[in-house]
Write a structure and sequence with these properties.
Elements: E1 2-5, H1 6-11, H2 13-22, E2 26-30, E3 33-38, H3 41-50, H4 54-64
Parallel strand pairs: 1-2
Antiparallel strand pairs: 2-3
Length: 91
């Protein structure tokens, strides 16, 4: 992979885009730490299409844990907890 600073990439962006299009991804660094990557559009589309959507992942989890998520087996505590020390004024 090609690695360059953001400053250098800003000055020669077209060269780095061409490198990402034809050869390999370009890693952009700030203070010698990687912060971003330039990849070709084809590689971006390939990665995007392989990733399942959030809804698909949630549905898969729902199917896997259907027995745990069944509401009948989960005890739900009452929403109201009366305070035994509370005094109600009587007239």
């Amino acid at each position: 992979m090609c690695t360059t600073s953001i400053y250098e990439a800003r000055n020669n962006l077209s060269d780095y885009v061409k490198t990402a299009e034809t050869e390999e991804p370009v890693i952009l660094t700030r203070y010698n730490k990687p912060v971003a990557v330039i990849i070709s559009y084809g590689e971006y589309e390939a990665r995007k299409s392989n990733k399942p959507s959030l809804i698909d992942r949630l549905n898969k989890l729902k199917e896997e844990y259907a027995d745990v998520l069944n509401d009948e087996g989960i005890p739900i505590p009452p929403k109201y907890y009366p305070d035994p020390n509370r005094k109600i004024f009587e007239e």
